[in-house]
């Protein structure tokens, strides 16, 4: 096991897993490639993984079919169900890049019925992150929230979930992405980049009540926020701020077994309130290419890896 670039990804044989109490096994059809997967692969998360024996398996989003149910389940899930799951690579069961995965039943919900496996796999991890972000800001309907990185997968969900909460949305975009961002529901679109706070203030002179920083611009976004407002950061960034501003570092790992939140997101996708965007589907043998595509930047939607090119055990 070596960390490194996309070429560090390897296909390995592992023993067939079986679920324990309160767990299910999923025959994986599709997994989404997220930035967290790259951090697992390149060694940025090595300290957090050192308690586990190698090989280390990335992946936090999976869609597939339940093929075994462990004891102690409540009957909500059964063999044959088409499901989606949010997974942690930090658990003894490892991540989602596998033919079969073991997941706590609480982290699994039925897939949106009209979505393909590839589409369904893109929902939970990114949308759950934004659900936590909006809950942390706790803005009342009619308030204004700004979103950076709004054309990306996380930012797109941020626009749609904020609109579903009754918020006014100011989103950033490059010229080529303006129509996409408008189509997702943004009320105002400003130019992205290092001057994003200035651009937001030009559109909303009084400042926004909250800001979700999906572009990881951190302190560059702070001037856009009105006194007493809140900033949500997605990689743990936090600094003392003036003007009564608060910082909310959101970590999706705190809510992986929050079934009620997961079901709410599934229902919103089922109703068409959330757009499931697949950039490109790769066979599992080309997982490295999926990582290269994401790392190159500018991807609209998420790369997805198809695990059905392997024969089931």
UniProtKB/TrEMBL annotation:
GO terms for molecular function: oxidoreductase activity. InterPro entries: ADH-like_N, ER, GroES-like_sf, NAD(P)-bd_dom_sf, Zinc-ADH_QOR/CCCR. Keywords: NADP. Residues 4-305 form the Enoyl reductase (ER) domain. SUPFAM superfamilies: GroES-like (SSF50129), NAD(P)-binding Rossmann-fold domains (SSF51735). Transmembrane segments: none annotated. Pfam families: ADH_N, ADH_zinc_N_2. This is Alcohol dehydrogenase superfamily, zinc-containing protein. It comes from Stigmatella aurantiaca (strain DW4/3-1). The lineage of its organism: Bacteria, Pseudomonadati, Myxococcota, Myxococcia, Myxococcales.
């Amino acid at each position: 096991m070596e960390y490194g670039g996309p070429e560090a990804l390897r296909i390995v044989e592992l023993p067939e897993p079986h679920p324990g109490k309160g767990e299910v096994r999923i025959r994986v059809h599709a997994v989404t490639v997220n930035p967290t997967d790259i951090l697992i692969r390149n060694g940025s998360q090595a300290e957090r993984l050192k308690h586990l024996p190698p090989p280390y398996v990335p992946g936090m989003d999976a869609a597939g079919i339940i093929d075994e149910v462990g004891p102690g389940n409540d009957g909500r899930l059964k063999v044959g169900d088409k499901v989606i799951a949010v997974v942690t690579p930090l658990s003894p069961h490892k991540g989602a890049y596998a033919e079969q995965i073991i997941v706590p039943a609480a982290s699994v919900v039925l897939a949106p019925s009209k979505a393909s496996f590839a589409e369904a796999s893109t929902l939970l991890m990114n949308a759950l992150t934004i659900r936590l972000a909006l809950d942390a800001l706790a803005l009342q309907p009619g308030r204004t929230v700004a979103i950076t990185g709004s054309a990306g997968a996380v930012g797109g969900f941020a626009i749609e979930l904020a609109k579903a909460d009754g918020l006014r949305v100011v989103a950033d975009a490059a010229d080529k992405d303006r129509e996409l961002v408008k189509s997702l529901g943004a009320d105002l679109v400003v130019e992205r980049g290092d001057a994003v706070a200035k651009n937001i203030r030009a559109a909303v002179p009084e400042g926004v009540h909250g800001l979700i920083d999906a572009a990881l611009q951190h302190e560059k976004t702070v001037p856009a926020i009105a006194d007493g407002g809140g900033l949500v950061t997605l990689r743990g960034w936090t600094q003392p701020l003036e003007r009564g501003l608060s910082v909310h570092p959101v970590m999706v790992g705190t809510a992986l077994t929050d079934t009620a939140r997961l079901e709410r997101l599934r229902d919103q996708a089922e109703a068409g309130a959330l757009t499931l965007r697949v950039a490109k589907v790769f066979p599992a043998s080309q997982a490295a290419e999926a990582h290269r595509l994401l790392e190159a930047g500018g991807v609209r939607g998420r790369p997805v890896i198809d695990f059905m090119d392997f024969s089931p055990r």
